[in-house]
Amino acid sequence: MATRVNGVVDRVEGDVAVVVYKDPGSGEINEVYVDQKKLKRITLQEGEDVTVEISSMMVEPLTPRLKIENKKITDYKLFLQEHSRPPSRGGNTKALHAHYLEIEGEKYSFLALGSQQWVFKSDTVSFEYIVKDGIYKNIIKATLVTVDHSGKIIVRGNRDFKNKLRTAATRMPVSRREQRD
Fold first, then answer.
1. Helix, strand, or coil (residue 114)
2. Does an H or E element contain 56, and which?
3. Angle subtended at Cα 48 by Cα 61 and Cα 124, rounded to the nearest 5 degrees
4. Which pLDDT does position 56 carry in this prediction?
5. Who is most buried in 43, 82, 107, 179, counting CB within 10 A?
């Protein structure tokens, strides 16, 4: 019997879209791998809300999911991935950033909107990740859980998505004629 669940597209890997959903029975967060070739006239994008039929759309996972539980970070860095924008035009606060966590000498990363830090050094963090190309450890954002120093689960950072990323670089605040000279 097929089960329909609501979920969110976490990432797209070639012809396979990875949809994260909450299991209605157990309440656990799971992934389903959807073969986009089975869809009619639809291409899934990261961040889209979708309804999937579990039995008929599933394919085997491309890479195994690994888990980190209750670890403290040793370093946290983030880098702007979109074109920079001046503060007068809205700044870079909601732009796409690459977030890097270092735990016991190993680096893990994920892409997210915003320059807000998701985990502090006083927190413990748990998450699932996949290894891509043998070296990149990509965190699955939906599984990232931060626990602060007093033991409370904290949600930090911008967990939204944008349909369209910045494509044009900012230009100097001069006329086109002055820019040519």
1. coil
2. helix 54-57
3. 65
4. 45
5. 82
Q: What is the pTM of this model?
A: 0.62
Answer for the pair 62, 140: CB distance below 8 angstroms, yes or no: no
- Strand blocks (E) in 24-115: 29-35, 49-53, 65-71, 75-80, 96-103, 106-113
Structure tokens at 84: 């920079």
Residue pair 121/73 in contact by the 8 Å Cβ criterion: yes
Question: Using one digit for the tens of pLDDT, what is the confidence trace for 62-93?
Answer: 567 889 999 999 999 999 988 888 787 778 88
pLDDT tens for each residue of 167-176: 777 777 777 7
- What is d(CA 129, CA 109) in angstroms, rounded to the nearest whole number? 9
Three-state secondary structure call for residue 127: strand
Around 41, how many Cα atoms within 13 Å sit in the side-chain half-sphere?
0
